[in-house]
Amino acid sequence: MASTKTQMKKPVWLKYSEEEVKEIILKIAEKTPGITTEKIGLLLRDNYGIPTTKIYGFKIGDVLKTAKKYESADLKNLSTKLAKILKHIGTNKQDQKTKRSLILTKAKLKKVKEYLASEA
Questions:
Q1: What pLDDT sits at residue 14?
Q2: Which residue range forms the structural domain that includes residue 36?
Q3: Which stretches of the chain score pLDDT less than 70?
Q4: Same domain, yes or no: 26 and 62
């Protein structure tokens, strides 16, 4: 059974043009360095009333990549998790589950770094 891809249409009540949305994304990225694409999407939805950028035919990550401000959310989240685990192990040296979690998180981080290096 073939699936049909539905084309999203811009709602009548949405007042922003494609260029304005791109400018808003870049402004948010400049104002708060290190912000992820997910957080920018939430800010667009909550503060500007833009439900999704797919309506305009682009993604937030693509806009940030063209402006050289893109930071991988996976890499950032795993790095944060690794720092929390290392801090926990520093105070709780006998925690075996956390030691295993440390090994798994390091492996995931390595895979993500390799993937991003091969993608670039």
A1: 81
A2: 18-66
A3: 1-7
A4: yes
